[in-house]
Write a structure and sequence with these properties.
28% helix; single chain; globular; 5-stranded mixed sheet; 4-stranded mixed sheet
């Protein structure tokens, strides 16, 4: 029995926010003092490090569960399945539904339940649940779907990664420029066709790393101290990712039995261009090789870091042939990899 992605879909929000839009912001240090450089210099340095030119935000009327439903409908249509035959809906996110201007998250009912409702699925045996696993949530959801299918508990699963990070960022924090919104969804099924998921690796590091990403106060000390925003220790995350992600990727490739030379593309979580490039270089160095040209498709330049949505969105863009200079064909072997809050790391080797 092989377990494959039989359909995919994504939602890319329509609101484009460029780096120039951040020149109007008041950036502060974490102690509330003014940041010493002009905003034009801040945004220029930001681009040099991250590679992000612009990002996408949802319109005021949309919630995370709404854009997840849009992506899910596309994946279901792409797979050509009846949604009533789904056994599981696994929805990876981190912050639930956050309305524009609200200070509370809403996860009652769960976002997976809302998607099932919006899809008008009647079948009570279709089990819907949410997953909180940081940015690697979609990959972990696929790993769980594979386990359910292998165990005979499921035949078809819908795995979604969606987030509206624009609703949980502190606009006085320079890190707010990294984040964006988006949704990606996939149908995971057992298949008689060759290929599918060949191996996976997953790990959670907490002893020193648990609070590298956390909820904290605004840098603007006049803001309500009970309202929290996504915060991160960027340097620590960078060093952690460079240390642990290549190891997880190698563990996964070695377990798959695939030779490193047969990897066609590496679809890695899009958080920071320089970090991703360093991860790829270190990964290939573990095999005594240099990273091949064009091995790592990038969507971060125009879409930013949409957390759990980045990898499934990147996959959907590739299979639909809408990412310039990159393509996938039947039989190609790809490597998914991600790192994020927890701190969690995971990877999948997959044959198209």
């Amino acid at each position: 029995m092989n377990i494959k992605i039989t359909g995919s879909g994504c939602y890319i929000p329509t609101e484009i926010v460029t780096n120039a839009d951040f020149t109007k912001h008041v950036f502060l240090n974490d102690d509330g003092t003014p940041f010493p450089l002009p905003n034009e210099v801040i945004t220029e340095k930001f681009y040099d490090i991250t590679g992000i030119e612009e990002r996408r935000y949802v319109t005021d009327n949309l919630l995370t569960s709404d854009i997840a439903t849009i992506a899910a409908k596309k994946a279901i249509e792409n797979a050509g399945i009846d949604p009533e035959t789904l056994d599981y809906i696994i929805f990876a996110h981190n912050f639930g539904n956050v309305k524009k201007g609200a200070i509370q998250t809403d996860i009652l009912p769960s976002l997976a339940t809302r998607v099932k409702f919006d899809l008008r699925i009647k079948n009570p045996k279709c089990v819907a649940y949410d997953m909180l696993f940081g940015c690697p949530g979609w990959i972990e959801g696929v790993i769980q779907a594979q386990a359910f299918i292998k165990a005979g508990m499921a035949k078809k699963c819908l795995v979604i990664g969606a987030e509206t990070l624009s609703r949980v960022v502190d606009m006085h924090d320079r890190d707010s420029m990294i984040y964006s919104d988006g949704a990606g969804a996939t149908i995971i099924e057992s298949s008689e066709e060759e290929g599918g998921i060949l191996a996976h690796a997953s790990a959670t590091f907490t002893f020193d790393e648990a609070y590298y990403l956390f909820f904290g106060n605004s840098f603007n000390k006049d803001h309500d101290p009970d309202v929290r925003y996504i915060k991160m220790h960027g340097r620590k995350i960078y060093e952690f990712a460079l240390s642990q992600v290549p190891k997880a990727m190698k563990e996964c490739v070695d377990a798959s039995g695939i030779d490193i030379s047969n990897i066609k593309k590496v679809l890695i979580h899009q958080a920071n261009e320089k970090m991703d490039e360093a991860i790829i270089q270190r990964f290939y160095k573990l095999y005594g090789q240099k990273a091949p040209e064009g091995i790592m498709p990038m969507s971060i330049h125009k879409l930013g870091n949409s957390s759990v949505a980045t990898v499934p969105t990147l996959y959907d863009l590739l299979v639909r042939g809408t990412l310039e200079g990159h393509s996938l064909a039947k039989g190609d072997v790809i490597l998914f990899a991600s790192v994020g809050a927890g701190m969690n790391v995971n990877a999948i080797v997959y044959k198209m």
